[in-house]
Amino acid sequence: MPDDDDGRLDLTGLYGERRPPPALEERVVKEWAHAVGAPVARRAGAPGWTLRAAAGVALFLAGWGAARVGSGPAASPPLAGPSAEPLASAGAPGRELPRFMLLLWTGPGFRGDPDDPALSVEYGAWARGLAVAGVEVSGEELADARSWVPPGEGVPEVGAPGPRAEEDLRLGGYFVVAAESEASALEIARRHPHGRHGGWVEVAAIVEGPEGR
Amino acid sequence: MSEREDEAAAIRAVLAGNEAAFRALYRAHAPALYRLALRMTGGSDTAAEDVVQEAWARAVRGLARFEARASLATWLGRITTHCALERIRWERRGGEALPEPEAIPSPGRESPLERVDLERAFEALPPGYRAVLVLHDVEGFTHEEIGGLLELSPGTSKSQLSRARAWLRRALGNDYAMERGDHAR
């Protein structure tokens, strides 16, 4: 027992509402898996590249301007990556192009190392290349932790793997690009380095209202 | 099964590579360890995350040798405390002195003091004083134990505790109800 109880301060409520961030759990699990030689389930793995890729996007947005709606292709800088032919996605000046969402999925076949900084550089270069070519592109960071609201009036499942756990698929991040057509959007998606690392890129058109965006 | 038997079963599963078991173990203990790390490091999320991550890394390495002389929670708390103290020793290597309480911005005394005021004042304490206060008043260590952990004499630990308490009371105003009641802990 402590030997100086008189005058003790009540600090039990100090930081009582603070919780460890979900990303910390993923880092700790990864260290545990390394120590005991266990495989880390990809669904539970830290999609660190998402954050870094988003950071890369943020950096290039800061440098090139966030909105490039129909600003037209730049004169010469090539797209990053092995397929550097010009894209036909950037429309005429002032015209709003359809937008497509590129969802980046990782599964058992994903070979990229989330902790390899080269991956974020590669993804950032892809986004920067699009911007240089005049393509409107944006990305958002997704938190590691996921929660699910089941059908009906079920109780939300906080921090749960959700209905895709069996498939071992995880949505790691997304980009939104403006393109002339679905074919152009697919071509943009095909050039994303995610595919070369064994990831899937899902392409979905964003449904615009009658008034446009 | 008793609590100790449950813990032993969980540890066997964790060492066998059962990820669900490890996540369950982590989630059961991480919140308390994180709060402990926050208190020891003065409310820095970055520092607390580093401390907790290092603590789990050491715990995993030592789990096979865990002999259940104490509860797993106590054992993990001790490891976290040691990790935090290593950081504190580094932070206070240049010596430390208590700042003047008046230097801490605070609302007017006519305003009700809130949790944020306590946090702000607590975080202004030098790391060594903060550690003594947390180890004694929250974690229940004796001055002998604190002296051993912080490489101080028990008398110095007692003196720093007294000064830290008095300093906090002065910084917050004596109207702040900080005296520990029977309900605490």
Task: Explain how this protein is built.
- The complex is a heterodimer of chains A (213) and B (185).
- With 213 residues, chain A is α+β, with helices and mostly antiparallel strands.
- Helix content of chain A is 29%, strand content 13%.
- Chain A has helices at 22-36, 48-64, 117-132, 182-190, 193-196, and strands at 99-106, 137-140, 170-178, 200-205.
- In chain A, strands 2-3-1-4 form a 4-stranded antiparallel beta sheet, covered by helices on one side.
- Chain A is extended and about 75 Å long.
- Chain A starts with 21 loop residues before the first helix and ends in an 8-residue tail after the last strand.
- Chain B is an all-alpha fold and 185 residues long.
- Chain B has 8 helices and no strands.
- In chain B, helix 2 crosses helix 4 (72-91), helix 2 (19-41) crosses helix 6 (127-137) and helix 7 (143-150) packs across helix 8.
The CATH class of the largest domain in chain B:
Mainly Alpha
SSE ordering of chain B: HHHHHHHH
The SSE order of chain A reads: HHEHEEHHE
Q: Which structural class should the secondary elements of chain A be placed in?
A: alpha+beta
CATH architecture of the largest domain in chain B: Orthogonal Bundle
Determine the N-to-C terminus distance of chain B: 26 Å
Strand order in space, largest sheet of chain A: 2-3-1-4
Count of alpha and pi helical runs of chain A:
5
Principal-axes geometry of chain B comes out as elongated
Give the percentage of residues in beta strands of chain A: 5-15%
The helix/strand class of chain B is mainly alpha
Radius of gyration of chain A: 22 Å
In helices, the fraction of residues of chain A equals 25-40%
What do we call the CATH topology of the largest domain in chain B?
Answer: Rna Polymerase Sigma Factor, Chain: A
CATH superfamily of the largest domain in chain B: RNA polymerase sigma factor, region 2, helix turn helix motif
| Mean pLDDT across residues of chain B | 79
Radius of gyration of chain B: 18 Å
